[in-house]
Amino acid sequence: MTAPKDQNIKSQPAKRAERFMNRLKEAQEYAAAAMATSQQLMEDHANRSRNPALAFRVGDKLAWVSSKYRITKVVSPHVMELDVPSGIHPRFHVQLLRKASDDPLPSQTIDDSQPPPVFPKSESPDSKNTEPEQYVDRILRAERVRRGRKWVRRVLVKWKGFVEPTWEDRVNLEANKALDDLEKIYGKGDAVGENEGARQGPYRASHRKRNGRQM
C-alpha cells in the first residue's frame, strides 16, 4: 500500500529541513573544533616564549617601582595583591614585580618577623607630654605620590627596633629631628634621599628666574 501523493509532497520540505539542520550542526561542530585547535596552538606558542611564573606566597616581599611591599593575596600564579597605599590599585601582574633583594632564597628561609616598636616617653621629668611616641632612627627618602585625586608628600622612615622602613605622611614628621637631618643634606624637595633613584647631593630647586623674579 503506497502513501497518498499529497502526503509525500508534504514530507519533502521536512526532510530537506532536517538535512539542512544536520549539515549546520556538523559545520558548527567543525568550527568549534577548529577554534579549539587554533587556541591550543596559540597557547603552546606563547608558552614557549614565556618565562614560567615564580612561585610567590602570601607574606613574601616584592619590589614594585622603587618600593617594597608584602603579598597580601595570591590571586593567581600570575597576579599578586600587595599592601600598597590606599589610592593605588593593589593587584599586579608578576612581570611588573621582582623579588625584594633582602628576601632569602627558599633554601635560606629565616625568621624575619618584625620586633615590637620602641615607644619611649619624654625624658624630661616635668614634661606634661606623657603620650608614648615611636622613635625614629632616620629618614631615608622623601617623595611626592598621587593618592586619589591629590598629591601627598611622604617619607621613608627607619624606626628603631624595626627591620623594615615604612612610608609615612611627611606632615606627621615635620617636628622630627630626623626630617631636619634629611633636609640639611638634600633640601626640602621631593624625590631625594638614599633609596634607589634618589638625587645625589643637595637638592636644587628647578625654579627659573626671569627679570629678577621667580617663575
TrEMBL record:
Subunit details: Component of the NuA4 histone acetyltransferase complex.
Compositional bias ranges of the Basic and acidic residues kind: 123-135
Domain of life: Eukaryota
InterPro entries: Chromo-like_dom_sf, Chromo/chromo_shadow_dom
Region (Disordered), start-end ranges: 102-135, 189-215
GO biological process: chromatin remodeling
SUPFAM superfamilies, sorted: Chromo domain-like
Species of origin: Uncinula necator
Residue stretches making up the Chromo domain: 134-184
Biased composition (Basic residues): 205-215
Protein name as annotated: Chromo domain-containing protein
